[in-house]
Amino acid sequence: MNQSNLTAQLLDWLKHPHVNRNLSIELDVLSRNDTLRLIFAYFELYHPIFILYLVIGGAICLIGTLFNILCLAAIFTYPPLRHRGSILVANFVLVNLLLSATVYPISLVALSCHYYCYLPDNNCNWAYYFYFILQSLTWQECFLALNRFVAIVLPHEYHYVSSTKATFAFIFLGYFIPLILNLSPAGSSVPTYTETAPFGGCLYNQNGNPIFRDTHAIVGVYLPMTVVGLSYCAIFVRVGISRYDAGGAKLSSSMQRRLTLAKMLFASFIWYCLTYLPQPILTAAFPSIYFIYPATYFYARWALFMGAGANAIIYATTNKDYRHGMLFVLNRSSTRKTNPQVASLPWPIANEETGLKGSTSVANETAYGNTVM
């Protein structure tokens, strides 16, 4: 089928859609002008829902940015969260912040430009940044899960992975692996990513290197996700066996804190799976679904945005320390507005009668300040 006939067939689908699973495979024969023509036609027909997509997508990004900033502020200012064990969590929140504040807003702008202005041939180069940050999120989550695995399943070995050097080594590897993956095709003459119909999203170039495409997806996303899933399965099996062997006795306070953090991170991982996986599953099982039901493209993207946007909310709902920490930041900000002189004092405020810190504050700092979780 030549380009003009295929483009005409695709445009006819806008009026009379029908199922053709092989259609998406043939899109690589379209020229860029025909692809842009097809993209513009879809924008024209689905313009109202596209505007709704921009509004809701922008709102998700804004809310996600604010909540991730709030969560970071809680980790750095709330005493029960200020310990070495929170460094990996803070770094993970930072990556979510980058997604909500930069990656997803850029994707909204890039998609809009296909309708409102002309983009150059190399406009999909920004996808390197998109995938670098997204894969960094996955690998950082992987190292967080491995950290929890050692803390709970192999507690006697935990000092090896909880040191400052080990912590920053995990963080470095969490960025280094995605960086190498995304720099590997840099010298190729064929573009790695290209705009695709129906709405111009930047995806793998079908004419590119298939080995890179498979390696990029497996090593960048699916391998670390598998490790995360197996780590949490091992954690909960170990905890169940330990409780059974102990006749239902309670865990030690340190182990309970570690398990509480693991539950929070596991809930975050489940949320990540629920929001990230719909898009690859849909396109793998139904290659032409975005052409037949274009609205599903926006639904899948909203879910992707929610992955980073609601992560800090999950922390607050599943872990009381993070919930109290975020409330602490909000209360402190409110106090600073109403009483700047008091708000400027270091926390906790000295007891006016004795000149000493309140007993609760001292207990918190003693119990949590130097805890490695």
What order do the helices and strands come in, and which of them pair?
Layout: H1 3-13, H2 32-45, H3 47-77, H4 86-116, H5 127-153, H6 158-162, H7 164-183, E1 193-196, E2 201-204, H8 210-245, H9 253-276, H10 278-285, H11 289-292, H12 295-309, H13 311-318, H14 320-338, H15 340-343, H16 359-368
Antiparallel strand pairs: 1-2
Helix pairs in contact: 1-2, 3-4, 3-12, 3-13, 3-14, 4-5, 4-12, 5-7, 5-8, 5-9, 7-8, 8-9, 9-12, 9-13, 13-14
Descriptive report:
A hairpin with a 4-residue loop joins β1 (193-196) and β2. Helices cover 72% and strands 2% of the residues. The chain is built from 16 helices and two strands. With 373 residues, the protein is mostly helical. Strands 1-2 form a two-stranded antiparallel sheet. Residues 17-25 and 342-373 have low confidence and may be disordered. The protein has a single domain (3-331), classed as Rhopdopsin 7-helix transmembrane proteins (Up-down Bundle), CATH 1.20.1070.10. It is globular, with a radius of gyration of 24 Å.
Radius of gyration: 24 Å
Distance N to C terminus: 61 Å
Dominant shape: globular
Structural class: mainly alpha
Number of helices: 16
| CATH class category | Mainly Alpha
What's the architecture, going by CATH?
Up-down Bundle
State the helicity in percent bands.
over 70%
Strand tally is 2
Low-pLDDT residue intervals, each spanning 5 or more residues: 17-25, 342-373
For the record, the count of structural domains works out to: 1
